[in-house]
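Protein 1 of 2
SEQ + STRUCT:
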Amino acid sequence: MSKILVTGGAGFVGTNLCRYLLTQNHKIICLDNLYSGRESNIADLKSNKNFEFIHHDITKPLELNNIDQIYNLACPASPPAYQKNPIQTWKSSVFGIYNILELSRRNGNIPILHTSTSEIYGDPLEHPQKETYWGNVNPIGIRSCYDEGKRAAESLLFDYYRIYQLPIRVVRVFNTYGPYMDPLDGRVISNFIVQALQNENITIYGDGSQTRSFQYIDDLVIALDKMMNNNKDFIGPVNLGNPNEFTIEELAKIIKKIIPNSTSQIVKKPLPKDDPKLRRPDITLAKEILGWEPKINLETGIIKTIEYFKTQI
């Protein structure tokens, strides 16, 4: 049994990861400042003797002892959340990873898995995106607090690895969805499902031809576990996502088909600034080194997500 710290543990991915790790008989410390995480996500876990919640902002130093592993997921990930307070978003990525790295060093170099993002590729000029691609990011745009913050965090992780031999694992997570998403977080799948369930117009930004690749959360948490515990000293970065690519309009039509009683109509509005037009991971590395690839197809995952959202709306 390991004692594992999960920062951002009350967020969407963090909640699912905490639940998964508890089923593996680990002790979990869930740390979150609840900026975008929700305490209701973990309310039922607080009675579990192997689960502890700490309300803390990782932009501030933290003192913990006897930790075996750290998963760093602490940063708002949806555009409305991270653009609401861009300075705090940047601090969460950069000051946050610095504080986590220093915590690791003080405790004898605890292994850290850091969740970076496909957004480090920006609006890509390479498709699909491989880990060797350096990206096409606007450093001064409205999304740069998140995109460049995540890029800076990767830089710091690799410097600690080179200078202090600190054991790191870096994953670049592509669009992920599933239970424990905030229905109002502004991401495309949650937006479309909520609009369809409430018979509101399904809003597509742009002409709908921009593409995304959607990964169900259960596939991701298995990949995170495999990456953290890989015995090949593989530090990454590695893409974690579903390589099946859909246009945004195709996604809207799939959701309308799965919710046949919805009276929602599809409407189109202008594309937000710096919104990437293409997104699909090359997951060759994950297949070869981790023996991982996603198993859950989009329609199956959407059905499970709709059932969860019905309990939230």
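Protein 2 of 2
SEQ + STRUCT:
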Amino acid sequence: MAGTDKSRGGVTGGGPAIILVEPQLGENIGTAARAMLNCGLDDLRLVRPRDGWPNDKAVNAASGADRVLDKARLYPDIAAAIADLRHVYASTARDRYMVKRELTPRRAAEEMRGFLAAGESCGILFGPERTGLVNDDIALADTVLTVPLNPAFSSLNLAQAVLIVGYEWFIAKTEPPPELLHTGHSRPANKAELLRFFDHFEEALVLSGFLRHPDKRPSMTRNLRNLFQRAECTEQELRTLHGVITAFLGPRQRKETGTS
């Protein structure tokens, strides 16, 4: 359906980041970029695209959405791609059996408009075309985003998923952020700070022997990450937790190294 009129003013910028995790084809990146520009979105982040980047096939498939592709940023992993974000949503069609908030694109779009109006950055994760996001990816998000479709056939291609979420964003009204936190002199922690805490905490759990069973470690780690995601920690609270972990590990580390 043709609808390009370069003489008219466009609407871009200020929306959530669209994060494509290990997209498999350049064409799919291009059509996703086209869907983004349809809806006024232009922050495209790519995590390890299979066929490399830049990609000529993406340009051809974008059908003129070059401004989105030109701004696209490449990241080595999800942690790097979400580091500067405050709120992360994970798009999935399957039940992951996690204790995690779940929203439709419509409700998520209203919520994101409220967060962004309050100066809190947002992003949405989309997984590889064949498999979708894995559970460890979902555990890095605050909220699961699920499109209510035919339960017997809810499969979407990458561009369709981006377009549905983008359209809901485009038409959404700004809603107040839910349960707005009054953090005093400490701002809400961003994902980079939360991921550093996860690394420290999980290292301590390994040293203490709590994560001693390799077969149980992935699910236990995901559950703990989900718990702290729901806690909505501030930057000061995470610094306090780092100190608690260091204090608990201190005597054990001195004993193991033979120091006094």
